[in-house]
């Protein structure tokens, strides 16, 4: 076999060692980022009783460029991230920049009138409260008579 063939490495998985030479050093991490980071900014969700905390990692966020919407079992966060340093040229990029939108399904409906948010050191914290209806919603269902058609 040709000793210059980038996949040459002998037996016992040697071909794996040659893959970075063949596909480029960052091929697998770039491919993985395409798959796993497509949902938007990373987050954690914490629960305590009837409350939720949704924590987003958002470095470079300008508060005037972010909108938060909470309705039923959905939380939506939209904004733009800026991580720029004037006078410097970007040579490696792993932090997301530009516009983003992240929609999260919550474990239960939340109150839209009791949502608090704070931002510090690149972390956005959204505090939500479970929607507890005092009286169950009772809705009359109309029945369509298919015999009369």
Automatic annotation (TrEMBL):
A Pfam family annotated for this UniProt entry: HSP20
Gene3D superfamilies for this protein: 2.60.40.790
Top-rank lineage group of the source organism: Bacteria
SHSP domain: residues covered: 34-146
Alphabetical list of InterPro entries matching this protein: A-crystallin/Hsp20_dom, HSP20-like_chaperone
Family recorded in the similarity comment: Belongs to the small heat shock protein (HSP20) family.
Protein's name according to its UniProt entry: Hsp20/alpha crystallin family protein
Organism annotation: Anaerobacillus alkaliphilus
């Amino acid at each position: 076999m040709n000793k210059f063939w980038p996949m040459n490495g002998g037996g016992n998985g040697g071909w794996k060692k040659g893959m970075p030479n063949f596909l480029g050093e960052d091929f697998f991490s770039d491919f993985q980022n395409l798959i796993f980071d497509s949902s938007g900014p990373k987050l954690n969700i914490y629960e305590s009783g009837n409350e939720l905390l949704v924590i987003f990692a958002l470095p470079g966020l300008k508060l005037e460029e972010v909108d938060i919407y909470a309705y039923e079992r959905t939380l939506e966060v939209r904004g733009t991230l800026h991580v720029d340093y004037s006078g410097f040229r970007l040579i490696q990029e792993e932090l997301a920049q530009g516009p983003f939108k992240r929609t999260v399904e919550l474990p239960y409906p939340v109150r839209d009138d009791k949502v608090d948010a704070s931002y510090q050191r690149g972390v956005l914290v959204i505090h939500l409260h479970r929607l507890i209806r005092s009286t169950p919603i009772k809705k009359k269902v109309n029945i369509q008579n298919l015999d009369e058609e």
